[in-house]
Design brief:
By secondary structure, this protein is mostly beta strands. The chain contains no helices and eleven strands.
Length: 127
Amino acid sequence: QLQLVESGGGLVQPGGSLRLSCAAPGFTFDYYAIGWFRQAPGKGREGVSCITSSGGSTDYADSVKGRFTISRDNAKNTVYLQMNSLKPEDTAVYYCAAVLTTVQNTCVMKQVDFGSWGQGTQVTVSS
């Protein structure tokens, strides 16, 4: 089973930046769409962004559009989430997840579709 490992979380001041990474050590995830999700304290998990297996299509939650950028390097089996202009409301545990799919023209941040999940990485935005 595909195993995912997130990294790059931490404490950052409002307006700052972080880059999260999602790696699949020992696996080739060329055929997996990848999603980033987050769960803030006391709230349900929500979709943040997703990217198709080829990287040709992406989608973002309205709350992060224009601030976050998802990308992938299939040669390194890694997906990135560049987060800029961070706000306190971005504070959450961030998870990456993978779904095996042949769909290339779009990705959907539908949690139930994603069968493999990482353990999460904490992002805290605070002064």
